[in-house]
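During the no-cost extension, the postdoctoral fellow (Dr. R.K.) reprocessed legacy sequence entries with the updated structure-token encoder. One reprocessed record is reproduced below for audit purposes.
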Amino acid sequence: MADRHEFDLIIIGSGISGLASAITAAENGLKTAVFSKEKELAECNTFYAQGGIVGHGMDDSPALLESDIIRAGDNLNCVDTVRLLTREGPDAVDEFLLKKIKVPFDRNEGGKIDRTMEAAHSVRRILHVKDRTGESVEASILKYAEKTANLKLFKHHVAIDIITNTHNSVDTQERYKTTRVIGAYIYDEESDSVNIFFAPSVIIATGGIGNLYLHTSNPTGATGDGIAMAERIGAEIINSEYIQFHPTILYDKDVKRFLITEALRGEGARLMNKEGEYFMERYSKKLKDLAPRDEVSRAIFSEMERVNSDYVFLDATHIKNISLKDRFPQIYSKCMDIGLDINHTPIPVVPAAHYFCGGIKVDSDGKTSVPGLFAVGEAACTGVHGANRLASISLLEGLYFGIRAANFISRSSSSIPKSMKDNTPDWIFPKNEEEFDPILISQDLLNIQTTMWNYAGIIRNNKRLSRALSDLNYLSHRVEKFYNEAKITRAIIELRNSVLTATIIVQNALSNRISRGCHFIIDH
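Re-encoded structure tokens follow.
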């Protein structure tokens, strides 16, 4: 018999959006639970965000920020949600992160908040903590959450599926009623058990999909779990073809997934090919190295092909107005570890999968198309990013809409009928659980990653996407067979989610024949 727990709200994911939601809901009086599949709650995309978070800028205005977001998003953005974010989001940074959480953002000699510049921004409006902004934000908000009443944090707990009355009830009459979310099946790795957590509201805050690609800036846990869980209960997924590739990931055989923040280019670093040419003017005459990320990634990709190289260089050697060691200590230290002094030597870089601009379709309160299901952060599609995310907007979006979703849920909290809970069965384990060779699972994941990188990457065409869909469909059948026969593990759950989310991305990319933002297709 599985353990059964009841909460007012459960949140799957412990990044900035999930924790902002959790703290807000708990302080509003809701009994709240947060689940992370990781060994450490801080292990998430938020932790690895180097650059910063958009706040109140210098000589800035909501209209100017709105214009920058929409220009970067290639006019595919939802204007209403962009307008909400630009008018109210920076205040949330002040009230929540500065005053409540007390994130130690860098300050200038006068004691005022220091602001930096990044690509496609018109003014300096990005608050930062050296080049460890995400790490500092995540640590600060987690410390606050751990002391918050009504809030329980679970690590090593992997969400398997969202529970609904129509998908899971043993009462056959429920399938004819309106679908509503009533909780989730959660796998507890430490006790090797699957338990039920009931809640009338569930927030998906599972982050991105970067680990579906061979090269990514994301941690290994970014496997599209929330997208897959939402898809399985019929929630709408939109804009999934828009995958942002970060232009500058450190290129080194021994160091993987290390991002070189765009703020380094904001301070004056320039991209250079292996022949020593600064090349961005060829691709963006006006903005050059500070062009939007999709343009810079394609420019690097094209330049690598043009000069037959596996990487380009990011040259910061001419920057003299700041101390690179003091302003970018993490980058400086990591590069020194591999024998590169960035004061004197350019940094080898390549583009890599970075941010999911699409996601689970939500309104401005985080509501999805399925009652009781909410989504925030990178797993959600509010429409803010359009076809391409503006730098340092993701943490702001996660913070603001995370708080907003929790406030809405607090105002409209409901309860689950006892009959629905009684008619929800325990998790059904396979009759003859097999322990699969982990090599088989890792090889299937590698197949997904290679397929997505080669066929659904920075530059796409219809033939490659068609091949990707065919290969993923074939793989899906094998993975589902694995899943139905295997002993439940985190790896099996992630593999199942990965192949489904990858398939969704490719299907949408194949059906969209218009190049826009992050979706660049060369034949029509």
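The chain has a mean pLDDT of 95. The first helix runs from residue 16 to 27. The remaining legacy entries will be reprocessed before the final report is submitted.
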